[in-house]
């Protein structure tokens, strides 16, 4: 592309100015790809499969791969060492549970403050194939899944997906979330502004961070975690597993609260530094999502994002900087292109 661009301008524009114009062109909005989103740091909360503020109640022979913790409440009902795989433990009002709650608050705040890359048409996630990025419904409305959702890692095992809602998350019986092209449950996060309910027999992935309560119905399987900041967690014969993830760190800009229930108001996230994602349409046979299913539209562009493309993680600063540099180089090139001694 670049050599042909130079050839087209030869004779009319000094080569240095051509380079500047090319840089200006490629720096304009519209040259986007999937977002490179930093992961959400869970710190010590990463070592827990189940975390609650008030109580944890289990029915049936649930199997849990990581630790179980509750703080400031003191009730864990229906779980003992036979349900938790070693070396995981059950932490009730311990220092470890308290620290995990503090780290959960910081991680929740981080996820909630991420700028949205793509706004979904509606609450239904069924039939969608999504690339890495930050997603929400309109005005961060409730999210629900009644069928299949596919997360496409695009060949990057560190690809990050963040889902935001100021309301609830609900998955129906038999629904599923799955991966293609290398994505991992380690980097999928669901920030839920009220409560989450995962339906019976559903297959779910990622870390659910709910402001209040989480209910996991009979026979559900989760590759991830269920972490409730201010309420209870209820389980019924469930399996909560998870891959071996690289330990994450707490979001550094956030100061841990003195009390576990106190909200953190200081945003802990830094904006992603790469361009925002485009949502991939469902592959056949899901070219038309079943009744009422959402399709994906780009979020309203921010600060010069251009067209209907989602905003970039840099907030539009990258293209404008490139354009400014290009104009400067172009101006210099025009001066240099003048022959010595020849009057302009």
**Helix/strand/pairing class, anyone?**
alpha/beta
DSSP strand (E) fraction?
A: 25-35%
Query: Oligomeric status of the shown chains?
Result: single chain
| Rounded average pLDDT | 74
In whole angstroms, how far apart are the ends? 32 Å
User: How many extended strands?
Assistant: 22
Low-confidence stretches: 1-33, 248-295, 297-344
Major beta sheet summary: 12 strands, mixed
Report Rg: 24 Å
> What overall geometry do the principal axes of the alpha carbons give?
globular
**Helical proportion, percent range:** 10-25%
How would you briefly describe this protein structure?
The chain has helices at 2-9, 15-26, 95-112, 317-337; strands at residues 48-52, 55-59, 63-64, 67-70, 75-77, 90-92, 118-120, 129-130, 133-136, 143-145, 148-152, 161-165, 169-171, 176-180, 188-192, 196-198, 203-210, 214-216, 221-228, 233-236, 239-241, 296-298. The chain has 344 residues and is of the alpha/beta class.
């Amino acid at each position: 592309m670049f050599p042909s661009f130079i050839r087209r301008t030869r004779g009319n524009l000094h080569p240095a100015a051509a380079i500047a114009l090319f840089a200006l062109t490629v720096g304009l909005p519209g040259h986007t790809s999937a977002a490179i989103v930093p992961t959400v740091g869970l710190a010590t909360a990463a070592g827990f499969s189940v975390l609650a503020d008030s109580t944890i109640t289990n029915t049936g022979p649930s199997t849990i791969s990581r630790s179980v913790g509750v703080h400031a409440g003191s009730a864990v009902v229906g779980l003992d060492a036979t349900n938790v795989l070693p070396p995981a433990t059950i932490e009730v009002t311990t220092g470890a549970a308290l620290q995990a709650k503090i780290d959960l608050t910081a991680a929740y705040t981080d996820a909630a403050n991420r700028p949205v890359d793509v706004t979904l048409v509606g609450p239904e996630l069924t039939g969608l194939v999504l690339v890495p990025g930050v997603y929400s419904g309109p005005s961060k409305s409730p999210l629900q899944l009644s069928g299949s959702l596919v997360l496409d890692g695009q060949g990057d095992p560190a690809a990050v997906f963040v889902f935001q809602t100021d309301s609830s998350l609900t998955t129906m019986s038999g629904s599923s979330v799955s991966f293609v092209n290398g994505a991992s449950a380690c980097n999928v996060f669901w920030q839920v502004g009220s409560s989450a309910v995962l339906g019976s027999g559903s297959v779910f992935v990622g870390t659910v961070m709910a402001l209040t309560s989480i209910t996991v119905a009979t026979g559900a399987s989760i590759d991830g975690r269920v972490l409730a900041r201010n309420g209870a967690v209820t389980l019924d014969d469930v399996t909560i597993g998870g891959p071996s993830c690289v330990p994450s760190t707490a979001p550094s800009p956030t100061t841990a609260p003195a009390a576990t229930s106190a909200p953190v108001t200081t945003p802990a996230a830094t904006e992603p530094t790469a361009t925002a994602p485009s949502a991939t349409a469902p592959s056949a046979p899901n070219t038309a999502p079943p009744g009422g299913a959402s399709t994906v539209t780009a979020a309203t562009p921010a600060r010069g994002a251009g067209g209907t493309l989602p905003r970039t993680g840099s907030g539009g600063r990258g293209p404008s900087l490139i354009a400014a540099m290009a104009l400067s180089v172009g101006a210099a090139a025009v001066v240099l292109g003048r022959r010595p001694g020849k009057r302009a």
